[in-house]
Amino acid sequence: MKHRMKCNKNAIALLITVMFVIVITVAIGFGLQQVNKAAQIVKDESFLYQTSIIVEDILKILKTSPDIARAGDANASEELFTLLSLPPMPFESSGVEIMLTFHSARAKFVPASLDSKKIEALKEYISNKMINIQYIDILLDSVGGIRADNSYRSAIFNENPYLFRDYIASAQHLEQINDFYQREYNDNSLKNIQFENLFYFSADKNTSIDLNYATSEVWELMLNTTKERAEYLVQNAGAYESEESLNLTSEELENLKRFATSFFEPILLVDIEIKQNRSSAHISFEYDINSKKESNFVYEI
After folding, report:
1. How much is the pLDDT for 41?
2. Which listed residue, 130, 146, 181, 243, has the most CB atoms within 10 A of its CB?
3. Running DSSP on this structure, what letter comes out for residue 48?
4. What is the domain partition of the chain in residue ranges?
5. CB of 218 closer than 8 Å to CB of 198
6. How many CB atoms lie within 10 A of CB 293?
7. 8 Å CB contact between 101 and 21
8. Alpha-carbon torsion (33, 34, 37, 40), positive or negative
9. Which of 83-87, 143-147, 291-295 has the lowest mean pLDDT?
10. Residue (of 185, 186, 139, 137) closest to 163 by Cα position
């Protein structure tokens, strides 16, 4: 019975994937044809036009797709799980290669949300990874904003006076922070952390972590547990409905309470990779299924 249900889910996921690819290919193909006809401009400028049209068309499809809308229904968590289980969707139109991927936008930890309880959890986590706890001071400086009295915990802004300090805005921003730590402490132990699976870059301090999509790195952080235990919890993704369904020990549950968590957050992280000849772009943004609003755009071109 379970095997049949799994096969049915895989079939549904495959069908949705095929439908998305067909719909998006047609929509984007039409838009790109208009650009190619209207604009014989510099290649890079033309690529920027194409990129903006692709993003607009994907947003239009997200807002009108009944499959996407159903995934926002709190009584239809299976639909959200199916949607987030879709494999990367590659398609090509008018000579432009596009890869579209959906993730949960609430699977990781937002450093801007650090408070006393989360700092305690992060100290435990980085100590387990053999990292100096002064790293937390650098992170706190990097999300604490400008201090009029220059009372920072670390010397990071002595070396990087123009470094943004309201929140960690991107992977490149974090890389600058990590480079400073490695030079300052002559320590390369940060390699023990897969930051791409741990941190989510946002200014929103009030985001919850969706426990059905939390990464193993985030489970390690939240519970102060082993990698093996965290990976076991990830294996049951999509089946969590309550604290009882987590089957945590009393100590793990107490540790978990240090974080804002949820069992259903229908907010997508949409990743788009675009390539044409030697030009490439990576665009990501959040899409709230229920409000049909997009936010937190990151462009890398």
Report:
1. 45
2. 181
3. H
4. 2-105+266-300, 111-262
5. yes
6. 11
7. no
8. negative
9. 83-87
10. 139
Other Cβ atoms closer than 10 A to 216: 20
| Share of the chain residues as helix, strand and coil, in percent rounded to the nearest 5 | 50, 15, 35
CB 214 within 8 A of CB 222: yes
pLDDT of residue 5: 41
- Is the CA virtual torsion 6, 12, 17, 18 positive or negative? positive
Which of 273, 215, 282 is CA-nearest to residue 88? 273
8 A C-beta contact, residue 256 and residue 248: yes
Query: What is the residue whose two structure tokens read 């930051």?
Result: 195
With CA atoms as reference, report the closest residue to 22 among 89, 97, 96, 102.
Answer: 89
**Is residue 39 very low, low, confident or very high in pLDDT (cuts 50, 70, 90)?**
very low
Q: How far, in Å, CA of 57 to CA of 50, rounded?
A: 11
- Confidence band for 30, pLDDT divided at 50, 70 and 90: low
- Per the listing, tokens 């989510």 go with 200
153: Cα within 13 Å, side-chain hemisphere: 15
